[in-house]
Design a protein that fits this description.
- The structure is a single chain.
- It is built from nine helices and no strands.
- The protein has two domains: 121 residues, no CATH class; 81 residues.
- By secondary structure, the protein is mainly α.
- Helices cover 61% and strands 0% of the residues.
Length: 220
């Protein structure tokens, strides 16, 4: 491994808190007070906690930027924990056991993938990845990715018999409309109908962005 590609040491809890204190002071011109959030929304003028999904996406992006080992990223997704030497003493034994179990699961999936066919090897949660922050907050679970691969294989078997570009476009449009409608309906079910169209538009945008990303990853 070259020096350039060598993973960097993950920041300690104290380093993270110190970084956030400095960021808070730059943003609001004062030190944090009791009740102020550690991770705040930089887009508003008053100290406001970040949305949990946004925090999760930012942590995942920071881990990748720091070159964190893949088993650490996998365990964070599974447990919501980030265990380092400096944080281990602050975490309960039960939660540490969850972390260790997630690490073990990662290596078990890796061993299974190495001994399986290419299609099966792609079916683990690790093989699904994206750099889109909104999608990182809630990645596909392994069973969801297995189902996705099964659907894609079924569709490909049908289309391989001979499908024009317009037919493929129509199929993609129908799936897009279904996904966006699901987002619309979920907003209504949650009792926030005023956000329904906004959620529809957001899912439409994310689907197009993900499509372009898949194309760049060579998976399209």
């Amino acid at each position: 491994m070259t020096k350039k590609n060598k993973p960097r040491r993950l920041p300690t809890r104290e380093q993270l808190l110190r970084k956030q204190r400095k960021a808070f002071r730059r943003k609001f011109g004062r030190d944090r007070r009791p009740g102020d959030p550690v991770f705040f929304d930089p887009s508003v003028d008053d100290p406001t906690s970040l949305d949990p999904d946004t925090v999760n996406a930012e942590v995942l992006a920071a881990l990748r930027k720091a070159g964190a080992p893949p088993q650490v990223i996998f365990a964070y997704r599974r447990t919501g924990l980030l265990v380092t030497e400096s944080t281990k003493a602050l975490i309960s034994p039960d939660r540490l056991a969850e972390w260790d179990s997630a690490i073990d699961e990662y290596f078990r999936l890796e061993r299974e993938a190495q001994g399986s066919s290419p299609d099966t090897a792609q079916a683990s949660d690790r093989s699904w990845h994206t750099d889109i922050p909104e999608l990182q907050a809630r990645p596909l679970e392994p069973q969801e990715y297995d189902l996705l691969l099964e659907c894609l294989r079924a569709v490909d078997k049908i289309l391989s018999a001979g499908a024009t570009t317009i037919l493929r476009m129509e199929l993609a449009a129908a799936l897009l409309a279904s996904a966006c409608s699901s987002a619309y309906e979920s907003a209504e079910d949650m009792g926030v109908p005023e956000e329904a169209q906004e959620r529809y538009d957001l899912f439409e945008e994310l689907t197009v962005r993900r499509s372009r990303e898949l194309r760049a990853q060579g998976r399209a």
